[in-house]
Amino acid sequence: MTPFDIARSYIGTTEGPGPADNPVIMEMYASVGHDWVEHDSVAWCAAFVGHCLEMAGIKSTRKLTARSYLDWGVPIEVADAQQGDIGVIPRGNSNWQGHVFFIDRIEGAWVWGLGGNQDDAVNVKRYPASKLLGVRRAGNVAPAVTLSVRAVQQRLKDLGYHEVGQVDGKVGPRTRAAILAFRNDNDLALVPIIDVALTEALERASPRKIASERASGAPAESRIVTASNAQIGLGVIGAAGSIGSQIAPALMEAEQARDMAGRVFTLIGLENALSIALPWIGAGVFIGVVVYALRAKAARIDDHRSGKTP
Asked: pLDDT over 70 for what percent of the chain?
């Protein structure tokens, strides 16, 4: 659909009654990067035009000022204006104020504009053609680029929002949680959606800051750390026991008397070597358990301090 076709689909949309806000209009602000707007009473003609352009895949000015469109696209002579071109006229008493709309048609001294915030609604309304400050057409305007879900997930992970989980291109609970965390850190509206405001903030954001107490602390009630500590304790006890058995030859003699493997070693004359080696082999196994447990514990603490895990 063209921006003009999209604009026509909104005809009849009005501001919310009384103090209420129309969520459709609020989404228009957000789609051009202004989800900070709290009420639909804020002038929204530029938001409407920008929203329709963005929905059609054309980059808007992403501003809420109507006159920003005087520098958008390429200029068109009024006599050459076509349906779907953008018109800008003055409004108010200041030279920065204005009104922007899609041109529906020009008939004689009148231009018919399809726009938003026209009597607080989306409709077609006529204005004197002599008031046109300019007519613009997309021309060389770059396409609107919105990051894919996968790209957003990867960017969040790169910035330190590891709660995003797996980069799979799906917006699940973990991805929504990461988006909300990022939005909260960057003063964006707390809605778990991917829009212009989010993608632009992601592009210019710095890595997530890690609190000093977290950067030097350890995770509380971590099962990995608890299990690692238990393994380290058991490993130390086991290693000590294996080495201590070196001075208890009675254990080896009992094994040699009862175990078939011990008898085989006795037959081939390796009983002395076995009695010496076994305790050290056992100690080596326990020491290996200790080393791996220490590594697991260190990795878990490092993930906590870097923000990768709670």
From this structure: 66
